[in-house]
Write a sequence for this structure.
């Protein structure tokens, strides 16, 4: 039997049908190192990922940009930020309301501006920056809408702060930084609703969904530029 196998292998080699290769396998120590290389980042992300994404890093800016989709409580918090930090303008940003109806076709930017006025912000300090309606890359479209609106008004800020929701903060700053380039310093303020649970994020189904979405979104933006060919608003 062994001689037959040897003969078949010999004929296979002559006909160039098979060839011999050396297979490398990790030792037990190598397997342990590979496992640690995979497990440690995952463990760190479970413990610190939410705080990493929920970045607050202000700049001494004259312009505060608030993403309108964060809701009424978020607008009131942004109004307080505006009043306490001495900004010159507050920009209400956002595209079409995903829950819009025929009775209220307002964009998130328009809805945010109304809420800011009700929160005591003078109308002359509010700039409405609607974004193009889009199903994807809405943060990018929102940043482009702000850039175009400020440029049309002749406002070229040396620095600005973006006020947004929790773990979306780091991605928002990354997108705005790409749109504005090195000539404008971009800071960010992460806001969370007052009723947010204090338990770890994996014990809340809503926060777990947000973490997965924002983790994928941030990596997609950081590594692949969200599939865009260019960051230029055009």
């Amino acid at each position: 039997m062994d001689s037959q196998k040897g003969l078949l292998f010999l004929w296979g080699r002559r006909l160039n049908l098979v060839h011999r290769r050396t297979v490398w396998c990790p030792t037990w120590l190598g397997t342990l190192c590979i496992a640690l290389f995979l497990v440690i980042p995952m463990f760190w992300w479970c413990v610190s990922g939410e705080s990493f994404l929920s970045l607050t890093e202000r700049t001494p800016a004259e312009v505060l940009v608030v993403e309108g989709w964060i809701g009424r409580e978020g607008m009131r918090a942004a109004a307080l930020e505006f009043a306490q930090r001495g900004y010159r303008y507050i920009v209400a940003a956002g595209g079409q309301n995903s829950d819009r109806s025929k009775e209220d076709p307002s964009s998130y930017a328009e809805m945010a501006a109304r809420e800011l006025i009700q929160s005591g912000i003078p109308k002359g300090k509010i700039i409405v920056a609607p974004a193009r309606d889009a199903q994807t890359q809405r943060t990018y479209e929102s940043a482009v809408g702000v850039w175009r609106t400020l440029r049309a008004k002749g406002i070229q800020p040396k620095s600005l702060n973006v006020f947004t929701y929790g773990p979306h903060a780091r991605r928002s700053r990354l997108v705005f930084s790409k749109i504005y380039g090195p000539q404008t310093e971009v800071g960010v303020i992460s806001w969370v609703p007052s009723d947010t649970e204090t338990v770890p994020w994996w014990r809340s189904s809503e926060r777990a969904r947000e973490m997965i979405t924002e983790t994928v979104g941030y990596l997609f933006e950081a590594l692949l530029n969200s599939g865009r060919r260019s960051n230029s608003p055009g």
User: Anything to note?
Assistant: The domain at 57-227 is CATH 3.40.50.620 (Rossmann fold).
